[in-house]
Amino acid sequence: MKPFNYLASAAALLFAFTAVSCSDSNNDEPEPEVVNHIYISLPDGTPTSITEGTDETLTLAIRLSSPVKEATSLTVEVSGIEAGLVTLGGNPVTIAAGTNSGTFTVKPANSGNVTEQKTFTFAIRDLDPKKFDIAQNVTVTLLPPVDDSPLTDEEKALVKKWKEAYGVDLTPWIGAIALEGTIEFPGGGNRAPFIQPQTLQLAGNTVFGISKEATDQTPVLDMLENPMGMTEYLYKTLRQLTVDDSEYFALEDDGSGLELMELIRWNAKSEESFTAMLPGLKIKDIKDGVATIEFVAEGDDYILNAQGEPIYSSISEENLVYSYHSSWIPFQYDFTAWSRQLALLEEDDAIAMELQSYGVTAAPACYLGISSVLEDEWEIDEEEDGVSNLYVTPHAEIDFTAGTMTFEFPFDNADQNGYSRIKVTYTIKK
């Protein structure tokens, strides 16, 4: 054997031995632990509120990102409200070996101590951060008990005048009203949740009240809680467009989304409160027990300060707007992350102002319902584009005899191709 070949063979043998030794050594090392993410959720369309003094119960799902190797118990706790106001059922939640899901329930404790609306989320007791974290949470609203006579003397007087003038009684439409409906979604977005067309179901209740805009001549109602049954959908969509979007917004190392998140201490795990309402439902043209409902806002959708004045941006050299649409469904949002950014905008904070001026924001209204609704801005040609045009002119009516209120309107978010079509029907109990 030639010296070169001998040395080459010896080197090869040594390399093989070393490789095996290294491989054996690696096998002896413990595998690094991977954090199992916990997702707490409610089905789409499920109401996100429960009312004191009732037996209303929500069933929430817990899903893990990976199945557990052995049976695991997770003890759920309520976060954000005083102890004893709600009751949890099916708790601790047991995740069977080889599976990744379970459920629990929450309902009012009917303690008699709820006098105002309260919101809360959930936590897991003694959670080992090396093994688990909560990647998605749910905000639930606990409503005070419904008064048998929820109207003030002034509101009762208005109801009486409307009954005398139009022969209709608004009293049954005050309080929690059951609904059912659909969101027909066109798909065509860039992010995974918005790519495919789908039809989502809406259900639950909306709490109605008499608006401050009401007059002797014009009945006006506000949707005070869970408008159109959409609160959970709206918040879920907002998160999917922002803190839950690791492809465009919530980047780990860089980007304006990350800059905003750090500025206002907002991320996928921060505890936030989100509620929605829809004010100003004007009941018009009342005849023979049927009336139309006007519910579209028109004009400039300015971002307002605490004094109700538009906030000016020296960067864009114009007043800040939620969207440049000229007509929209005027959902109003109370979202804690946006409240923190809005406070900075009112102080003319340079970073907050720059981010907002370039559309980097926590404002729900900058992502939800961004196109005009009284005209078809998408102008989809079904034959040419090969997709459905779901645009519909907004319309609504109330049938006092049948005890129904119906809505149909277009709506979109910042990542879809065309409008969604939303249909909702409210029915009062007789």
Molecular structure report:
With 430 residues, the protein is of the alpha+beta class. Helices cover 19% and strands 33% of the residues. Strands 12-13-14-15-16-24-25-26 form an 8-stranded antiparallel barrel. Helix 5 packs across helix 6. The N terminus is likely disordered.
Provide a brief overview of the structure.
The protein has 430 residues and is α+β, with helices and mostly antiparallel strands. 19% of the residues lie in helices and 33% in strands. The termini are far apart.
Relevant terms:
single chain, eight-stranded antiparallel β-barrel
Distance between the termini: 103 Å
What oligomeric state do these chains adopt?
Answer: single chain
Shape: globular
Helix-residue proportion: 10-25%
Please report which band the strand proportion falls in: under 5%, 5-15%, 15-25%, 25-35%, 35-45% or over 45%.
Answer: 25-35%
Strand order of the largest sheet: 12-13-14-15-16-24-25-26
Arithmetic mean of pLDDT: 90
Q: What is the structural class? A: alpha+beta
Count of individual beta strands: 26
Tell me about the largest β-sheet. 8 strands, antiparallel, barrel
Compute the gyration radius: what is it?
27 Å
